[in-house]
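2024-03-11 09:14:02 INFO queue: dequeued item Peptide deformylase, len=195
2024-03-11 09:14:02 INFO validating residues
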Amino acid sequence: MILQIYGYGEAVLRKIGEEITPEYPNLKETIANMYDTMYHACGVGLAAPQVGLAIRLFIVDTTPFADSDEVSKEEAEQLKDFRRTFINATIVKEEGEIWGFNEGCLSIPDVREDVFRHEKITIEYFDENFEKKTEVFDGLIARVIQHEYDHIEGVLFTDHLSALRKKMIGKKLQNIMEGKARPDYKMKFANLKIK
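2024-03-11 09:14:37 INFO prediction written
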């Protein structure tokens, strides 16, 4: 089922997500709905706060990046079919070069900005079967994970921008809150009941 994506200004996007247990109500269905929603909106990641749930859950599928001319053949192979569910995740280490990449967000449609992040992370998490994992990721996979991880910490990619850049996109952010954005997917706007 395709869910509404909560837009910039919605309070849930600023909440730190709560850890969940395997008994979380309708967990499998929630995860399946999040994948349906992400694919419908042509995203590469989606966090539970973006669908109104203040829990530590996010999903990633970097397959669309595999077709990009900007990635090497080797990285394209890593990106292809990389699909993961992260529950109760904790990034335990960020390392390597800090590099910029033009990021966007389904909760902030029509806004893209260069964001600088570490190239490599170590993350501990539970998968959809609640099996504990510790993995190391780098490149675009690490970046997408960091972006989604920020969501469960109540952080948006715009928080990484300079004061000047934030000021320059202020009108666009205000328009999103007022429901003036028109993405090709269902959204819930902060200053409107339903779109």
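2024-03-11 09:14:37 INFO annotate: The two ends are 17 Å apart (CA to CA).
2024-03-11 09:14:38 INFO item closed
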